[in-house]
TrEMBL record, chain A:
Name listed for the protein in its UniProt record: Raffinose/stachyose/melibiose transport system permease protein
Classification of source organism: Bacteria, Bacillati, Actinomycetota, Actinomycetes, Pseudonocardiales
Family: Belongs to the binding-protein-dependent transport system permease family.
Domain ABC transmembrane type-1: 72-285
Location (main, coarse): membrane
PANTHER family per the UniProt record, alphabetical: BLL4140 PROTEIN
Top-level lineage group: Bacteria
The entry's keywords: Cell membrane, Membrane, Transmembrane, Transmembrane helix, Transport
TM annotation in the entry: 21-41, 76-97, 109-129, 158-181, 219-244, 264-285
Record's subcellular location: Cell membrane
TrEMBL record, chain B:
Entry-linked PANTHER family: ARABINOSE-BINDING PROTEIN-RELATED, BLR3389 PROTEIN
PROSITE patterns for the chain: PROKAR_LIPOPROTEIN
Parts of the chain that traverse the membrane: none
Keyword Transit peptide: no
Residues making up the signal peptide according to the UniProt record: 1-24
Species, as recorded: Amycolatopsis magusensis
SUPFAM superfamilies: Periplasmic binding protein-like II (SSF53850)
Protein's name in the database: Raffinose/stachyose/melibiose transport system substrate-binding protein
Length: 299, 430
């Protein structure tokens, strides 16, 4: 029997184990977030005193500025494209790679390989591939499709779609691995039962496998949308948001103004807006889409 | 795991740093004695081996001649300076000596209260450096010293010009247009430009503005951060006419300036383009992007051509420089070191590795190539020196200008919108 009353002991334990983590969280997450909100209310250049208090002017400037509006639109477009292109593609490839076929392990590695690379390395590789007269153009030329050669990164109408292809190349492997894991979780008995009932392979997939993959897909959608909203590294290295802001995202806009123009107050406001958008999406998605999946897992 | 360990290490360092600062009585402030023992923290932007070694040598020499002085040198990549400097100047321990490009950007750092006024210490000798030192002045006070000057002009391939039948470097815009036509006929991209990085585009507009606007108009616009005269619009109109001749390589708005063989510098270095409007650092950059060991002998230089009817001083140059600023802790000792950096032997060392044009004219013979000597002579004779506008103007305004010009290169906007971008940004509009 301990001499310390159990309530106190429990508190001691809690503070011992939780304390350091909590301190880190407060110091490196909550405080910076609070500071960003604070700075966003000032017209601050990043040097010396905070300067003039401008209230919500920075927010107004961002939300009414055409460049920022376009940036938001670009993020949304990437998110939507991810859902309608990457998801079906990932599912198809995952179903394929889940079958018994020769070299399956090798194919899985190949598909997953790009995800292992950092975004910076991906960007540099693709810069070389896509530069005028680069690998992409040579392949098209060799295939007799020289007429399809475009200014992949220099055409304002095309640049966002080019970036989307690179994003897909990099992240499709992650989706596939996630879905493969989901597929492994579907008991063979369920499929067998469907087959016994006379369901065709397509019917089994459509009515049994896909619905059971639902939770995995919902998680993937969540990660994909959040990732699309925060898109930065690839764009920054490949295009700097150009040409003519045609590939600006909220994050590149934020860095451009905060650090390149020394508009730290304004940049903070953009950061807060980006945070609110992501946070709102996350909350709503948890509330309406993920709730079924996480029931029992959380409170 | 790695990350967690890093965080712990960082925390430990932070805690130690805080407690050390708190414990040392009186801190470090007030050691204004130029001869006392001092350790400089020095941030410069030379991250390549040869240049880094030169700075190390210079520091070692200075240390040997000045016992009590020691250095903690930290090379920082060019681009990183933009993010590191605001944070460092906001902290309690900024570097003692740091890379500084002067102009409106440098003036923007003054509210931090950390940048040292070294007017008194530099007064006896700053005049010998010529007009370039003015860029590190604000309100008549000296806040830094340049160690190298830069001038922008056309770097061209003599061999490609000869093949295309161009006998003399173009001296007017009409002659430049004629050269562009001949080069196209010869099957080579006439001019390479790194439009992805935006600032190379701005050289064209900047030079046309310096040709169309008189020195008085140029000075007034930089001082008031307002462009009112029609000459600014005319620069854009001329630029439009020039862009319409399609003088650049395909995909120029997406081409980087200095990275990789496919960059604008790489294209000239490898003979895919005939010329590039760039600073004097370009031969050095080009050499690193090609296997051609003989590149230097093929490169020539000519100044930006004259325009018809411009009010600008003929031969005015678009220019800039590299310099260092001191922070308050070691201001006097730092100013003494900066004086050493502009002395002839040091300037010769810097010139020999292609760090830029010497700010001390006595070191000019140490320049390594004939074309760099040409650039130096041209700069010395120039009747007017206009600092690149993105440096001369306050940072937010300069970047807005670069963006507007880059958009113009991509076919968006008008000559008027470029000027408006400056006036709008100066008014604080985003």
């Amino acid at each position: 029997m301990s001499a310390v009353p159990s309530g106190l002991r429990r508190k001691l334990e809690l503070s011992l184990f939780l304390g350091p983590a909590l301190l880190l969280f407060i110091g490196f997450v909550l405080v910076p977030m609070g500071l960003a909100v604070y700075y966003s209310l000032y017209n601050w250049t990043g040097f010396g005193s905070l300067g003039e208090f401008t209230g919500f002017q920075n927010y107004l400037d961002a939300l009414t500025g055409s460049v920022f509006q376009n940036a938001v639109w670009h993020n949304v477009l990437i998110a939507v494209l991810s859902l309608v292109v990457q998801l079906p593609l990932s599912i198809a490839l995952a179903l394929l790679l889940n079958r018994k076929l020769r070299g399956r392990a090798f194919l899985r590695v190949i598909v997953f390989a790009p995800y292992v690379l950092s975004e910076a390395i991906t960007a540099v590789i693709w810069l070389l591939i896509l530069q005028p007269g680069g690998f992409a153009d040579q392949v098209l030329g060799a295939a007799g499709l020289g007429g399809l050669v475009r200014q992949w990164l220099a055409d304002p109408d095309l640049v966002l779609f080019t970036l989307f292809v690179v994003i897909t190349w990099k992240y499709i492997g992650f989706g596939i691995i996630l879905l493969l894991a989901g597929l492994q979780g579907i008991p063979a008995e369920v499929r067998e039962a469907a087959a016994l009932d006379g369901a065709s392979a397509w019917q089994t997939t459509r009515h049994v496998v896909l619905p059971l993959l639902g939770p995995t897909m919902r998680i993937w959608i969540f990660l994909s949308v959040i990732g699309s909203l925060q898109l930065f590294d690839l764009v920054w290295i490949m295009t700097l948001g150009g040409p003519a802001n045609a590939s600006t995202t909220m994050a590149t806009y934020l860095i451009d103004h905060g650090f390149k123009r020394y508009e730290f107050g304004f940049g903070s406001a953009v950061a807060v807006i980006l945070f609110i958008i992501c946070f709102t999406f996350a909350l709503l998605y948890q509330r309406f889409a993920l709730r079924r999946d996480t029931q029992g897992a959380v409170g | 795991m790695r990350r967690i360990r890093n965080v712990c290490a960082f925390l430990l360092t932070a805690v130690t740093a805080v407690s050390l600062t708190a414990c040392s009585p009186g801190g470090d402030s007030g050691s204004e004695n130029a001869d006392g023992p001092v350790t400089f923290t020095w941030w410069h932007n030379s991250t390549t081996d040869t240049r880094k070694a030169v700075w190390e040598q210079i520091a070692a020499d200075y240390q040997a001649a000045n016992p009590g002085v020691s250095f903690k040198i930290e090379p920082v990549q060019n681009e990183q300076f933009q993010t590191k400097i605001p944070l460092a100047l906001q902290s309690d321990s900024p570097p003692d000596i740091y890379q500084q490009w002067g102009g409106g950007q440098g003036a923007g750092q003054l509210p931090s209260g950390k940048v040292a006024d070294i007017t008194e210490q530099t007064k006896p000798w700053i005049g010998t450096l010529g007009p370039v030192a003015e860029d590190w002045k604000s309100d008549g006070k000296q806040y830094g010293v340049p160690y190298a000057a830069h001038t922008v002009g056309f770097w061209y391939r003599k061999d490609i010009f000869t093949n295309a039948g161009i006998t003399a470097p173009p001296a007017t815009m009409d002659e430049l247009n004629a050269a562009v036509t001949k080069l196209k006929a010869a099957g080579v991209a006439p001019i390479a430009v790194g439009g992805k990085d935006r600032w190379p585009d701005a050289f064209y507009w900047g030079y046309l503005a310096a040709r169309h606007c008189s020195p008085e108009q140029l000075k007034k616009a930089v001082e008031t951060v307002r462009m009112e005269d029609q000459c600014w619009v005319r620069a854009g109109q001329d630029l439009k006419a020039f862009l319409d001749t399609q003088p650049f390589q395909t995909g120029f708005v997406g081409t980087p300036a200095q990275q990789g063989a496919g960059s604008s510098a790489g294209m000239v270095a490898n003979g895919q383009a005939a010329m590039e409007l760039q600073g004097d650092w370009t031969p050095d950059t080009m050499a690193s992007l090609t296997a051609d060991k003989d590149l230097n002998s093929k490169l020539g230089w000519f100044p930006f051509p004259a325009v018809t009817g411009g009010a600008g001083a003929p031969g005015a140059v678009l220019a800039g420089g590299d310099g260092f600023s001191c922070t308050n802790r070691t201001a006097a000792a730092c100013a003494k070191f900066l004086e050493y950096l502009v002395s002839t032997p040091v300037q010769e060392k810097l010139a020999a590795v292609g760090a830029g044009l010497p700010v001390n004219p006595a070191a000019a013979p140490a320049l390594t190539s004939e074309s760099l000597k040409t650039v130096f002579d041209h700069t010395q004779r120039a009747p007017f020196r206009q600092t690149y506008f993105d440096i001369a103007l306050p940072t937010a305004v300069g970047q807005a200008l670069n963006d507007a010009i880059a958009n113009f290169f991509a076919g968006q906007g008008t000559p008027e919108t470029i000027v408006e971008a400056v006036n709008q940004a100066a008014a604080g509009n985003k």
